[in-house]
Write a structure and sequence with these properties.
The complex is a heterodimer of chains A (about 400) and B (about 1050). In chain A, about 35% of the residues lie in helices and about 25% in strands. Chain A is of the alpha/beta class and about 400 residues long. The longest helix of chain A has 19 residues. Chain B is about 75% helix and about 5% strand. Chain B has a six-stranded antiparallel beta sheet. A five-stranded parallel beta sheet of chain B has the order 8-12-13-3-14, with helices on both faces. Chain B has a three-stranded antiparallel beta sheet with strand order 9-10-11. In chain B, strand 12, helix 26 and strand 13 form a beta-alpha-beta unit. The longest helix of chain B is centred in the N-terminal third of the chain and has 79 residues. Chain B starts with a strand and ends with a strand. Classes of the chains: A alpha/beta (about 400), B alpha/beta (about 1050). At the A-B interface, helix 1, helix 3, helix 9, helix 10 and helix 11 of A face helix 6, helix 7, helix 8, helix 23 and helix 24 of B.
Chain lengths: ~400, ~1050
């Protein structure tokens, strides 16, 4: 879980506990739904954290369900390879951990009857380019309902490392009934049957980039091996990116009211605590005010204060100002004055790509500082262009009045 | 915009001053020093841009007369064809500007004025367009941000905020976020915070390895602990073993010694257990028996001797019950004896009291007489009643006497009062009765009231006679006047009645009745009016004038007169009657009446008084009679009372005689007598009681004495008869006690003797038994006598002791070694010495202690490790710190982005400014350059750089030589500044409003040639702007006038 700036310590603590809360909800669901077993497909925790407390909380949850006779089947992923777990943290005996990079097969029985075969494998390293799925044995005729558990990237999902890459067809060819996949944090159904190939995603979003619902899948299989999958949200807090168009807003009160109402409606819709990043768009007379970082911060705090009245807590992670003054840029651009020059300079800069020239010169004091370089190292051209547009918006909102549009 | 003219209501030295028809090109205001040229300059400035605040240090130009303010007549310079004149008016320092037409129709104010002036504010206008020598010479006025901003905005369009202000804001915002090598900026602070958190995270990240290491260490420690514990156990075991050997050493030695002694000792065939003890016991018992026998025999002997010596008085002993009774009763006997004496004394005392009582009664009173007195209730009741009767008589007598005295006194008083009243009555002089007098007074009053009436009658009659005469006289001259007759009314009534009858006959009753009523009403009206007419006539006739005289009037007057005469006669008669009743011979006059009335009143008073007094006297007489009657009554009553009392007294006396009492006694005396008698009798009863008691006591004591004597005799005890019986009884009791003790003693001795004899018999038997046992014991101990037995006993004991020692040693060794190791211990002890044992023990002990120490250290270390593991397990700070780090990174990223935006904005703004300066400002420079070249006669061809600072401007001569502004002379610099202003004005006018330009003698530092050139430059300026030039130099004015077509000179001052 990544933190949110500008919140109080209590909220920070709540967010710190969010992943544990989500894990507790999973184990509680195991008990309430009276499942036969729990499957965990890797990246249980980020071993880079080396967080003993997290490992112990995890084990505590396993013990809780084990005490009710529910087994767990675990594979490890790129973020939590086995060698990076604490050797002192012992899993309950009811937990089956697939530790070998060679697929292992175990049979789950109920009252002496085999009800499922689980095949899994874990890679001991943080990264591998090997297609692990291809090493999985094909399902045999006498196998009961067969589940493959593996941490991999199917068909190269964008935005994720190509860890243990495989193709969908590889999964289909194995002949299994269900593939419980890990690695992709967004709950994704690659295929809902024959076999079902599902990334359950992480049970709790960790940052604004992991917005949307997060949880786990309850898979119910009848005697005819027909399965039903149900996504069960478990997040303690939900990340959301919200865009608000404030066209025509002329007063700060109107802006705060519109924003608060939008957030309130969304939080009611989601019915859970929410961390949101708000992007303001549109042309507004208050663009100049919004372009001031301090004023925007104050507005954010004011709106956050209004959000305290909501039934479900809403935390504003950030407010991005993408508004423009109520001016006709093209008309301003034609003016033979400073404002027009600014527009023309903006176009010129946008035409340049990368961080060269005036942009580099302007950003050099920070670019050259090792502490802050990271803010721009991964800055795409698109983002730089966004900064240029913001700068233009800031200048125009300060220099040009509405009557000059 | 151009200024056509102006009117100064009040400003500085100007009041009600007007300047008209300024030139549209150049207007030269020429005047000497202190003519007011600068004042006019200031006036125009302030009219356009307002008057400064009163607190400002600027010259306020307060006029001495008039209201500060005035008017400017402005023309719009856009269209020459139709020139519109606008009047700008300001009145008062705070007066808002008003714009109006020439016809004084207002159409605008401040906003419209600003629109006319365009983007030129006061700063710009006062620094560029309306300047004096001071502004010209000061470069800073050109360099000011506002000027630059206005140039940029004025020259390039409208900007919301000045560029310099925006630039400053951007720089401030940038500086707030980040500055290199600073600590307070946001990013720097965040960076420091981040470093701290990362340091803490790094520390915590190591905890997992630490966690594992601690687990390993703990496991190792536990293994070592286990090894040490095993070693410790072995060492302890060895230590215990040698300790046991050491403990077994002494018993082992004892065992060996005992076994040796047993072998050496002679044997005894048999010996009873506890033989010696039994021997001792038997011998002891035998000795005791013998001693007891001896003592018992002696005791028995002594008892026999003593028993023989005892002799008891049986006869006395036989009387013991009686003696005990006497003994118990001796105190009573004594008490009774005392009581007898007391009683005798009491009887004597009572007798004495009786004698006193009889003495109180009287000298001749004796016992018989006292007894004869009847003190019964009836007698008391009779005497009390008689006493009450006497008291009642006495009280009544007193009342009667009191009443009699009061009545007599009252009688005397009344008699005196009567005499007094009679005297007063006589003094009244016997007036007539009040009634008569009141009647007389009434008559008198009537007289007084009626006498004037008589006079009135006389006057009336006289008047009537006069009138009558007059009337007669008049009537003689006029016809008669008749009064209204009443017979018409009678006829009307008759007619009404007839009509009514006719109506009844003709059956038209209603009509007839109506007609009858009408006629009757008419008759009534006639009668009333006739009478009133008559009365009026009569009245009016009395004072009728000639015109009113009639026969009736005369008749009336006559009637009246006759009436008056008649009435007067009656009155007169009445008055005479009254006078007669009052005692007058004739009718008195008022004075006589008043005098008589006074006398009557006085007499009346006396009569009233007499009547009153008489009444009082009568009252007193009545009271006197009553009093006398009362007096007589009381006297009579007293007499009767006395009679009754006498009767009672006689009865009383008779009764006393019967009682034997003195006849002179009165009932009130009897209670005392009764008391005395009663007391006497009570005493008598008391004496009787004492006497009886005495008799009883005497009998009791006598019986007691007789009993005591009888017993004494029976016991043959000598006693003195003169002694008191109680002493005899004591003697008897004492003697009895002695005899009783003798008897008890004898009994005891006999019992004792018997007992001892029995004991002797028993002990003899026991002695024989013990002896037999002793012999048997000897036999068991293989001895024939005591000495042998003792010897055998010693040997036996020794044997026994040795066996005990062996057993004890063996047990001790067993206890130490245990049954299993016994043989081993014995064998070991046989081979080892004590020193060797000690050595082994010490070695093992040291080894154990070392191991225990090491174990303790290891366990403590493990405890610490466990605590650290727990702390790590419970430490959930890592994730919070990671979140915090991410928050800070996020914030830093955000601030960096913000900084980047601001930096880029600043960069872009700078680029825009550069663009402006590069592309547009050169136009101004070119303009300025052109003017400057013109002014300097072409010496300076170029102005090279824009000005952010003075030093940045460079000038290039025609020769190509470049100079800094600092290198110029003052005049040339002023020319440069003037040229720059020309450039600004031109550029401003090109892009905005063309404003009137005012120069206040700015060419004074120009040499003539350059002045000329400057004039030429001014001429060029007039092509676009109206120019005003104020000067005190005629030649400059002339030069300008020559240079500029259409120039106008206005003299001022």
């Amino acid at each position: 879980m990544q933190g949110v700036a500008g919140v109080d310590d209590h909220t920070t603590q709540t967010l710190a506990e969010a992943t544990y809360t989500a894990w507790d909800r999973i184990t509680d669901l195991c008990l309430t739904k009276n499942v036969d077993f729990l499957v965990l497909s890797g990246d249980i925790y980020d071993s880079g954290d080396k967080n003993v407390h997290a490992q112990l909380r995890f084990v505590k949850g396993l013990k809780k369900i084990a005490d009710h006779g529910i087994k767990s089947y675990i594979v490890h992923g790129n973020h939590d390879p086995l060698p990076f777990w604490s050797s002192s943290v012992k899993l309950p005996p009811e937990t089956c951990r697939f530790t070998s990079s060679e697929p292992e097969r175990v049979v789950h029985t109920r009252n002496g009857t085999a009800v499922a075969t689980i095949v899994g494998a874990s890679i001991p390293e943080r990264w591998t380019a090997e297609n692990i799925v291809s090493t999985f044995p094909e399902k045999e005729r006498d196998w009961p309902f067969t589940i493959g558990v593996v941490h991999c990237n199917v068909d190269g999902v964008a935005g994720h490392d190509p860890y243990a890459p495989c193709a969908r067809q590889d999964l289909v060819n194995a002949g299994y009934d269900y593939w419980a996949l890990g690695h992709i944090h967004l709950p994704t159904v690659i295929q809902d049957a024959n076999p079902a190939i599902i990334y359950c995603g992480n049970p709790q979003g960790r940052h604004i980039g992991e917005s949307g619902p997060r949880g786990c899948y309850l898979v119910t299989v009848d005697e005819q091996k027909r399965l039903q999958t149900e996504f069960l949200p478990t997040q303690a807090v939900r990340f959301e990116q919200i865009t608000i168009n404030i066209n025509g807003v002329v007063t700060l009160d109107g802006f705060t009211d519109l924003t608060s109402d939008t957030l309130g409606a969304r939080s009611e819709e989601l019915e859970c605590p929410m961390i949101c990043r708000i992007t303001l768009e549109g042309r507004t007379a208050i663009s100049a005010l919004l372009s001031n970082a301090g004023d925007l911060r104050d507005l954010r705090e004011q709106i956050s204060e209004d959000c305290r009245m909501f039934r479900y807590p809403v935390i504003i992670e950030r407010m991005k100002n993408r508004t423009y003054p109520v001016i006709d840029r093209e008309t301003v651009k034609e003016r033979p004055d400073l404002a027009g020059d600014i527009c023309r300079i903006t176009d010129a800069l946008l035409a340049e790509s990368g961080t060269g020239g005036p942009i580099q010169e302007a950003l050099a004091p920070l670019f050259t500082n090792h502490r802050y370089r990271h803010s721009f190292e991964n800055c795409s051209d698109e983002e730089l262009q966004e900064i240029v547009r913001e700068a233009e918006g800031l200048l125009l909102s300060r220099l040009v009045g509405d009557e000059d549009s | 915009m151009k200024i056509n003219g102006l009117y100064i209501d009040g400003f500085g030295t100007f009041h009600d001053t007007r300047f008209d028809d300024f030139s549209g090109t150049l207007t030269i205001l020429k005047g000497p020093n202190e003519a007011g040229k600068t004042t006019v300059l200031q006036f125009i400035r302030r009219m356009l841009y307002g008057f400064p605040d009163g607190r400002s240090s600027e010259n306020q130009y307060i006029p001495s007369t008039g209201t500060i303010g005035g008017r400017l007549y402005l023309t719009d310079d856009e269209t020459e064809a139709t020139t519109t004149t606008t009047v700008l008016k300001r009145t008062g320092k705070r007066g808002n500007p008003t714009l109006s037409t020439l016809d004084d129709i207002p159409f605008g104010g401040e906003a419209e004025l600003r629109q006319m002036l365009g983007k030129a504010d006061a700063g710009f206008y006062n620094a560029i367009c309306a300047i004096g020598l001071g502004e010209l010479a000061d470069f800073r006025t050109l360099k000011g941000d506002g000027i630059q901003d206005h140039l940029w905005s004025a020259g390039t369009g409208s900007l919301k905020v000045p560029v310099s202000s925006l630039r400053k804001d951007l720089q401030n915002d940038l500086g707030a976020i980040y500055k290199k090598s600073r600590k307070k900026q946001i990013l720097n602070q965040k960076s420091t915070e981040l470093a701290d958190i990362e340091s803490e995270i790094n520390r915590l990240e190591l905890l997992q390895d630490e966690y594992d290491r601690l687990h390993e260490q703990r496991s190792g420690n536990e293994s070592t602990i286990e090894t040490f514990e095993n070693q410790f156990k072995e060492a302890e075991t060895a230590f215990r073993w040698f300790e046991r050997l050491q403990n077994a050493w002494e018993p082992f030695i004892d065992l060996q010694q005992a076994e040796k002694d047993v072998v050496a000792l002679p044997k005894v065939a048999s010996f009873p257990e506890d033989g010696l003890a039994r021997l001792e016991n038997y011998e002891c018992r035998i000795d005791e028996i013998q001693a007891d026998l001896k003592m018992a025999t002696a005791t028995c002997q002594s008892c026999t001797e003593e028993l023989d010596a005892i002799a008891c008085n049986e006869s006395l002993l036989e009387k013991e019950p009686e003696i005990r009774n006497l003994e118990r009763g001796v105190e009573k006997y004594r008490s009774d004896t005392t009581s007898k004496e007391t009683l005798s004394q009491k009887i004597a005392q009572a007798r004495a009291v009786q004698n006193q009582l009889t003495g109180c009664l009287g000298p001749d009173w004796d016992d018989a007489r006292v007894r004869a007195v009847d003190i019964s209730l009836s007698a008391k009741t009779f005497s009390e009643k008689t006493g009450e009767t006497f008291e009642q008589f006495t009280d009544e007598r007193k009342d009667f006497e009191r009443e009699i005295a009061a009545a007599e006194k009252e009688r005397d008083t009344l008699q005196e009062k009567i005499a007094s009243l009679e005297k007063n009555i006589r003094m009244q002089g016997a007036p007539r009765s009040v009634k008569i007098l009141q009647n007389n007074l009434d008559d008198l009053r009537s007289l007084r009231a009626k006498i004037p009436k008589l006079k009135e009658y006389n006057d009336t009659i006289a008047g009537l006679e006069v009138q009558e005469a007059q009337t007669q006289e008049i009537l003689g001259q006029i016809p008669g006047v008749n009064n209204l007759p009443l017979w018409p009314a009678v006829i009307m009534v008759l007619c009404g009645v007839l009509l009514l009858g006719a109506g009844w006959y003709l059956q038209e009753l209603l009509i007839a009745a109506i007609a009858c009523v009408v006629l009757i009403l008419a008759a009534g009206v006639y009668v009333v009016s006739a009478k009133s007419t008559t009365e009026q006539r009569e009245k009016s006739l009395v004072t009728a004038t000639v015109a009113e005289a009639t026969p009736e009037k005369a008749a009336t007057l006559k009637g009246l007169k006759e009436k008056a005469i008649r009435e007067r006669g009656e009155l007169n008669a009445h008055l005479e009657t009254l006078a007669t009743s009052c005692g007058f011979a004739e009718v008195p006059d008022t004075e006589m009446i008043a005098s008589y009335e006074a006398a009557l009143r006085d007499e009346e008073k006396r009569a009233v008084r007499e009547s009153d007094l008489q009444g009082q006297a009568d009252e007193v007489v009545r009271n006197l009679k009553i009093t006398e009657t009362t007096l007589e009554y009381f006297r009579q009553e007293k007499i009767e009372l006395d009679t009754g009392q006498q009767t009672v007294l006689e009865q009383w006396t008779l009764w006393l005689s019967g009682q034997g009492l003195s006849k002179t006694l009165m009932p009130e005396n009897l209670p005392d007598i009764y008391t005395l008698v009663r007391q006497y009798l009570e005493k008598e009863d008391t004496i009787e009681g004492y006497r009886n008691e005495l008799i009883n006591l005497q009998a009791v004591t006598a019986a007691y004495e007789w009993t005591a004597q009888e017993i004494a005799d029976a016991a043959h005890l000598p006693y003195d008869s003169n002694r008191s019986v109680d002493l005899l009884v004591e003697q008897l009791a004492t003697q009895l006690s002695e005899e009783r003790s003798f008897r008890n003693r004898a009994t005891t001795l006999a019992q004792k003797k018997t007992g001892h004899e029995q004991d002797i018999s028993d002990w003899n038997s026991r002695f024989i038994t013990e002896k037999e046992r002793l012999v048997a014991l000897f036999g068991k101990g293989d001895a024939s006598n005591t000495d042998e037995f003792r010897t055998n006993a010693g040997l036996f004991v020794e044997h026994q002791n040795l066996r005990d020692a062996i057993e004890k040693a063996t047990l001790s060794i067993l206890a130490t070694a245990g049954p299993r190791d016994y043989d081993t211990v014995i064998a070991t002890l046989q081979t080892m010495s004590p020193a060797q044992l000690d050595e082994q023990i010490a070695a093992k002990k040291t080894e154990s202690e070392d191991l225990a120490q090491r174990l303790s250290e290891l366990k403590e270390e493990n405890g610490n490790i466990r605590a650290k593991i727990e702390a790590i397990e419970e430490n959930g700070d890592l994730i919070t710190l990671r979140m915090k780090r991410q928050e800070i990174l996020e914030e830093m990223h955000r601030y960096s982005r913000n900084w980047a935006t601001l930096a880029l904005a600043e960069k872009m703004l700078s680029m825009a400014v550069e663009t402006y300066e590069r592309e547009r400002q050169p136009l101004i420079i070119r303009e300025a350059q052109s003017f400057f070249s013109e002014i300097t006669g072409g010496r300076y061809a170029k102005i090279l750089t824009p000005f952010e600072s003075e030093g940045a401007i460079r000038l290039e001569e025609a020769t190509g030589l470049q100079k800094n502004v600092r290198d110029l002379s003052t005049g040339t610099a002023e020319q440069l500044y003037l040229a720059l202003r020309f450039g600004y004005i031109r550029d401003f006018g090109r892009n905005g409003t063309s404003l009137p330009v005012i120069f206040d003698d700015i060419l004074v530092n120009f040499d003539p040639r350059r002045q000329q050139k400057a004039c030429e430059a001014i001429r060029l300026l007039t092509e676009t702007n109206q120019v005003f030039y104020f000067t005190c130099h005629p030649e400059t004015a002339a030069m300008l006038e020559d240079a500029v077509e259409g120039a106008k000179v206005v003299e001022i001052g």
